[in-house]
Amino acid sequence: VGGLYGGLLAKAGCQVHFLARSDYQHLKQHGLRVESVWKNFDLPSVSVYHEARAMPVVDCVLVAWKTTSNHELSQVLPHLCGPETMVLVLQNGLDVERSAAQVVGGENVLGGC
Questions:
Q1: Beta carbons of 6 and 18 less than 8 angstroms apart
Q2: Which of 5, 18, 20, 106 is most buried, most CB within 10 Å of its CB?
Q3: Are the C-beta atoms of 106 and 79 separated by less than 8 Å?
Q4: What is the pLDDT of residue 75?
Q5: Which helix (H) or strand (E) holds 105?
Q6: What sign does the dihedral 19-24-29-34 (CA atoms) show?
Q7: Residues 12, 37: one domain?
Q8: Three-state SS for 25?
Q9: Domain that holds residue 56
């Protein structure tokens, strides 16, 4: 989900930064390939990071990892969020926005699934 939405945003000209763990080396070397019902496309070069502390503060964070990793939001979001940053949670499940809201405040969190 993160690759799809991040890829679409990057393709539209938005500045997008990806946080990747297991796919970091592949994304760094080969970029991102998106295959979807809308259209397949390649982004040969993407801004990808292995650690959140190396990333810049952004306007919007898309949380699209599995909910089993939500315990890491308290270590990740402070590096990415400024006072006006919105966090869009794109995860399946009930009340998945709560973990992000506990870190950045509910007024800065949106649910998308």
A1: yes
A2: 18
A3: no
A4: 97
A5: none
A6: negative
A7: yes
A8: helix
A9: 52-113
- Please check whether residues 41 and 75 belong to one and the same domain: no
Same domain, 57 and 111: yes
Residue 100 one-letter amino acid? A
Number of domains in the chain: 2
Cβ contact 21:28 at 8 Å: no
Shared domain for 113 and 61, answered yes or no, is yes
Residues 71, 112 within the same domain: yes
* Cβ atoms of 86 and 106 closer than 8 Å: no
CA dist., res. 43 & res. 110, Å (int): 27
Query: What is the pairing mode between strands 41-43 and 32-34?
Result: antiparallel
The share of the chain scoring above pLDDT 70, in percent, equals 100
**51: number of CA atoms within 13 Å, CB side?**
2
Residues 69, 3: Cα–Cα separation, whole Å: 17
Nearest to 27 by CA among 38, 16, 40, 37: 16
